[in-house]
Design a protein that fits this description.
The complex is a heterodimer of chains A (246) and B (257). Chain A is mainly α and 246 residues long. In chain A, 81% of the residues lie in helices and 0% in strands. In chain B, the strands form two sheets. In chain B, strands 6-7-8-3-9-10 form a six-stranded mixed β-sheet, sandwiched between helices. In chain B, strands 2-1-4-5 form a four-stranded antiparallel β-sheet. Classes of the chains: A mainly alpha (246), B alpha/beta (257).
Chain lengths: 246, 257
């Protein structure tokens, strides 16, 4: 038993080395781009999504319709199609050649803004209408009421759904590889020929599992961080838990 | 004669004149008029769906009346060009469901109005808020969040929140209707003290004990109109309308008075 395992260990050692050696380039070249793209598109989505949500709840009717149309449009198109539109589409039809990273950032950011607007709209509408009434009754303007009363509550209510959005877009960034952004996925595919040549085709799976594990770690780390934030800003009466214990 | 009118005008804090409000075909208010002089407490009673709450909301324009006028002191507040936020800051409103700001503790709830609406600095606003909490007997609960307070305590905080704005009058919309019977007393006690301190109050409530002992006048509303009004003693013993008698009798039966 011991003998066999020792034997295997020696045989694997030769195979594992190229895999181990490929992890570092993925982390060094791919992960930062993936993280940057994720944070960038989330930020863009947040910047556009928040006003969109408020416009949808408090805006005048034409504005509401406009925001609704925007949201439906960007939620109704596959991420990959959007990325291609903002890269190849713009380049071929209008001669606007954006850097691949920028194209992916804009395409995924706009898409995320549509999803995030729905997260925030739900959160704003989950704040009881009495809060606005009470704020106005002490003489706050609508804007003051939104800023001081509605927003801080909606913010807390939106963290769980926003955590979900993070997990979702983090993995969507892999689609940016289609236009040549060298992020985690693209870097992995670039390493495939080397692995195949040195170890054989069946080791490609191991390489992909490595990439998958890195995504898993990034997702987990982000969710952990956002869970920490959720706890930090927790206030009695805002627990997102049912009171039922059994 | 002229002199008395002038004096009256100075004493009048709130004047409501012929206010109408309809939701679609449903005419909730069909011409309501009333007046409150400084320091007066009036209690509005009447069957549900009569427009009592709508009347209060029409007064501080949380609901815009279809027709009619409301004056706060000498200023008409129903005209379009008046600064409604400035007006509202002078009219306290206490809700049936408290509506405390959920994300702030008691102190924060009382402090936010003076700070954001009146631009008071934080230290002074905090001091003021502590005083108002003291006034409703809740100094010890300054750090508690609404979810950590009982209904009665929440309502007292909401009264403190209204008081911190130094309002000319406070509107109470069924302030004890959402409370457990045991908690009603503590809120009424605060309101009785306010009345004694000379606060002007318009109270929608069916607490007859409160009405009897504190109200200068009871306003009986039915079907969007003021059917009858007068001092409690008069209404309880010699109401002019049978409908008023009937209603008071029913209430008395229900609450055992």
């Amino acid at each position: 038993m011991v003998h066999v395992s020792r034997c295997n260990k020696k045989g694997d050692q030769q195979a594992v080395d190229p895999i181990l050696q490929s992890i570092w380039p993925i982390i060094r070249d791919g992960v930062p781009t993936t993280i940057l793209l994720t944070l960038g598109l989330l930020g863009l989505g947040l910047l556009a999504g928040f006003p969109l949500a408020f416009a949808q709840v408090y805006g005048y009717r034409p504005l509401r319709w406009l925001c609704k149309a925007y949201e439906q449009f960007f939620r109704g198109i596959p991420a990959l199609v959007l990325i291609l539109i903002f890269h190849s589409g713009l380049a071929r039809s209008f001669n606007i050649l954006l850097p691949t990273f920028t194209s992916a950032l804009i395409a995924l950011g706009l898409r995320s803004s549509a999803y995030q607007s729905q997260i925030f709209r739900g959160a704003i509408q989950a704040v009881s209408s009495g809060q606005m009434l009470a704020a106005r009754s002490i003489g706050m303007s609508k804007l003051q009421a939104i800023r001081h009363i509605i927003l801080p509550q909606a913010f807390r209510l939106s963290i769980p759904a926003w955590t979900n959005e993070y997990s979702s877009v983090l993995k969507d960034t892999s689609l940016a590889s289609a236009i040549g952004v060298v992020e985690l996925m693209k870097k992995t595919t670039l390493l495939m020929p080397t692995i195949q040549n040195t170890l054989g085709a069946r080791w490609i799976l191991v390489l992909l599992v490595v990439a998958a594990l890195i995504y898993l770690v990034l997702t987990y780390a982000g969710n952990w961080g956002l869970g920490f934030l959720e706890n930090r800003v927790r206030i009695p009466g805002f627990e997102m838990k049912g009171g039922v214990e059994r | 004669m002229e002199g008395t009118n002038k004096q009256d005008a100075d004493r009048i804090v709130l004047r409501v004149q012929d206010v109408h409000k309809a939701y679609g075909d449903n005419e909730v208010l069909r011409g309501v008029s009333c007046e409150l002089a400084r320091g007066e407490t009036k209690v509005v009673i009447g069957p549900s769906g009569t427009g009592k709450s709508t009347l209060l909301r029409c007064i501080n324009q949380l609901t815009i009346p279809d027709a009619g006028h409301v004056w706060l002191g000498n200023t008409e507040i129903t005209c379009k060009d008046c600064d409604i936020n400035q007006v509202r800051s002078q009219i306290g409103f206490v809700f049936q469901s408290f509506n405390l700001f959920t994300h702030m503790n008691a102190l924060g709830n009382v402090r936010i109005g003076p700070m954001k609406v009146k631009r008071m600095d934080k230290a002074s606003a905090t001091k003021l808020a502590r005083e108002e909490l003291e006034r409703v007997g809740l100094s010890a609960k300054a750090d508690a969040f609404p979810a950590e307070l009982s209904g009665g305590q929440q309502q007292r905080v909401s009264i403190a929140r209204a008081l911190a704005m130094f309002p000319q009058l406070i509107l109470f919309d069924e302030p004890t209707s959402a409370l457990d019977p045991e908690l009603i007393g503590e809120v009424l006690a605060v309101m009785i003290n306010l009345a004694k301190d000379g606060m002007t109050m318009l109270v929608v409530s069916h607490e007859m004990g409160f009405a009897r002992s504190v109200a200068d006048e009871i306003i009986f509303m039915e079907e969007g109109r003021v059917l009858e009004q007068g001092p409690p003693a008069q209404l309880f013993t010699r109401a002019k309308h049978d409908r008023t008698k009937q209603f008071l009798h029913k209430i008395a039966e229900l609450y055992g008075e």
